[in-house]
Amino acid sequence: MNVTKNNHFFKYIFLSILIVGIFSLSIFQKNTDMDLNTSSSNGLSNKKIGWGIKRNDNHEQPDVGNKNKEVLENNNGICLGNKEKKFIYLTFDEGYEAGYTNKILEILKNNHVKAAFFITAHYVNSQPDLVKQMIDEGHIVGNHTPKPLMSINLKGEKA
Q1: Is residue 107, in this structure, part of any structural domain at all?
Q2: Alpha carbon separation from 156 to 11, 45, 153 (Å, rounded)
Q3: Partner of 70 at 20 to 30 A CA spacing, among 2, 28, 32, 134?
Q4: Is the pLDDT of residue 21 over 90?
Q5: Mean pLDDT, range 105-114, rounded to an integer
Q6: Whether 109 and 158 share a structural domain
Q7: Which domain holds residue 70?
Q8: Of the candidates 56, 94, 60, which has an alpha carbon nearest to the alpha carbon of residue 80?
Q9: Is pLDDT of 81 > 80?
Q10: Domain presence at residue 12
Q11: Do residue 96 and residue 137 come from a single domain?
Q12: Beta-strand runs (E) in 47-95
């Protein structure tokens, strides 16, 4: 009788380990399905700089400040458009998916229009297929944080 109980016990242990192993592999596979382009922070300054624009009353582009302009130019950032040409910059804030993004992407694609989508971490995690579609179709995908980026330094510590 003890031998039978031991055999059942080992079968349950083996099945439990097998189930946990299969589950772990499926999660690992899911996390490696989407390749993300990332950049290294090596060589970037961790010095906090203020961010903002200085508005004016003469219908000219606002002043972003010399240091901010330098940081943007050195990192291929975009802040202000070309003041010599008239363009409309189409941007979307994507904090959550309300069911409209597929239609928006379809309309943009059909009309050969590119846009910028500012997305939250929650959106990346909950809508990876839509984010991949945005990138694949040539749209800009930017970071939309709940707090200003300048309040956190590159090491993830509060500044």
Answers
A1: yes
A2: 46, 13, 6
A3: 134
A4: no
A5: 95
A6: yes
A7: 51-81
A8: 60
A9: no
A10: no
A11: yes
A12: 91-94
